[in-house]
Each structure stands twice: as C-alpha cells, then as structure tokens.
Amino acid sequence: HVKERGRSDFRFYQRQMNIGLLSRMKLDHAMRQALEKNLFRMHYQPQFDLHTGKIFGVEALIRWNDKDLGEVSPVQFIPIAEESGVIVQIGHWVMQTAIRQAALWNQQGHTLKMGFNVSGLQFQQSNFVELVAAELEANNLSPDCIDLELTESVLIKDIDENLKKLNALAKLGVKLSIDDFGTGYSSLSYLKRFPIHKLKIDRSFVEDLPEDESNAAIVTAIIHLAHALKLQVIAEGVETEQQRSFLSALKCDELQGYLFAPAMSVEEFERHFLQDAHNLACHLRVSS
Ligand code: C2E
Ligand code: MG
Ligand code: MG
Ligand code: MG
C-alpha cells in the first residue's frame, strides 16, 4: 500500500512539475512573441515631491495584455523572464521606451524625472553602462533625467563588479535608487559604499501606517537613516490620507501611490498631469 501510494504521489508530483514547466515555456515563448510584435506597453505612475507638492517624475511600469492569457501582471511574468533570461531583451525595451518618452516630455517643456526598474541579469551585462549611455545620447537626454531602480539583492550579488558600474553610472550623472528598500539583505555597510541617491521604502512597510507599530518604527528609521546619509527617500504604495500625513510629518521627501494616481498610459498621464500646468500641483496638498 505504502509503495503504491508512494508511486502515485511521485506521478502526481511529476505531472505538477510538467505543468509548471510547460506554462513557463509557454510564457517564455509568449514573451518573446510579445517583444517581436511590440505588444508590451508602458504605464507611468506619478511621483510627488512633498516639499513643493508638485509632481517631479514618474516610474515606468511594464504592462502586458496577451491575446490568449489576458492581462498578465509583471509580478507574474518578470520573475519568469528573469529565470529564462528574456528579461535582458525586455529590460532593453523598457529602458529604450522610458528614455524615449522622457526625452519627448522634456522636449515639450515638461521637466520630469523618469524612473525605471532594472533587473539583475540586465544589470549584470558587461556593457550595461554603455547601453544606458548610448540610449541617452541617441535621444539627447540629460543623464540626470533618469533614475535607475535597483533592488538590494541585485546590488550585493557581486559587489566589486557592481560598484564599478554604479560609479560609472553616477559619474555619467544618472540617478540611482534602491527599490523595495528593507526587504532585501539589509547590510547597511553597502549604503555608504554605493553611489546611490535615493531609498525607496517598500510598500509592505507603508501598509497599515500609522497603526502598525513595527511598520511605523521601520519607516521612521529608514527616513532618518536616509537623511543622515544625505540620501533622498521616497515611499511607495501610499494609499491613504493617514499614511500621507504620517510620512509628511517625518519629512519623507517624495510619495508615490494610489492616493495620488495609479500607473497610467501616456495619453491618460498627459491628460491628467501635463495639459494644464495647474494640475501638476493640485493633486497634492502642500503639507505644513
Ligand atoms: P515596483 O518596482 O516596486 O513597483 C511598484 C508596484 O506597486 C507597481 O506594481 C505599482 O503599480 C504598484 N503600486 C503603486 N502604488 C501602489 C499603491 O498605492 N498600492 C498598491 N497596492 N500598489 C501600488 P506593478 O506595476 O504590478 O509592478 C510590480 C513589480 O514588477 C514592480 O515592483 C517591479 O518589481 C516589477 N516591474 C514592473 N515593471 C517592470 C519593468 O519594466 N522592469 C522590471 N525589471 N521589473 C518591473
Ligand atoms: Mg520600482
Ligand atoms: Mg518598489
Ligand atoms: Mg515594491
């Protein structure tokens, strides 16, 4: 009996694994198709400066609506793209699209910073810095208009190699942020070694502010740490007025979240935020 059950368990396990494998392969294929046919889209989520109350930039977030799979969240497909390696091509598309859009907006007189996410494999390319520099030059965009969002886990993987790249990027004038700060390997020593400009407090710590005492303590500590190190700090996932006022009282520099706006298409973003200069400020009350 035991033997039989063991065998059927094994078969069951194997079938599950095949399904997992199949859908990964399918997804990988679908992603390559989407790249080839230019089916990925980019949405842009506004970011606000708490000192001026104005929008200062956006974060570019990839979107994918597949004809068979429907809307697939980047939370689902980015990790699979990272495993298969196709993230390198996707990441290149992201960088090109974000830089081109930033150049366009800036040419139209809208001074906006463009933040975009860079994943590990993409950053590990030996010519990554050159790729960024080439794209900026091709679009005649000032390097300080872009903000590369990297996670802690990416940065600490090969510290010496990464340090060279980060220094080269910083020398170029590109801004560097640590995304999802606090969720990775929290060795604080690299904060002083890396030429980064901003910490992005992860949404999981912003949730339940100010009621959750641990989150309140963590967020307070991160903001103080950032300022003590002369870094900017932004909170992501701000959804409520209570969160906004808590973060504002702590002198968090910047905010991003559904309280202000979700990520939206170029058309929506332009309609809501660029058509009338007044709109830039009116979405965020300047706090005292
Ligand atoms: P992330 O870089 O930390 O991006 C923030 C995520 O939080 C976005 O989800 C954004 O839509 C969402 N968000 C923003 N404000 C709020 C809020 O107030 N409440 C809640 N609940 N969520 C909020 P999204 O677009 O689904 O992206 C998820 C993750 O996928 C990103 O996390 C990033 O790690 C990855 N990702 C997205 N686009 C790209 C990309 O172009 N390249 C790479 N490498 N990764 C990407
Ligand atoms: Mg990000
Ligand atoms: Mg983040
Ligand atoms: Mg996050």
Automatic annotation (TrEMBL):
- Report domain EAL positions: 24-277
- Protein name (database record): EAL domain-containing protein
Species in which this protein is naturally found: Undibacterium jejuense
Q: Which residues of the full protein are shown?
A: 524 to 811 of 811
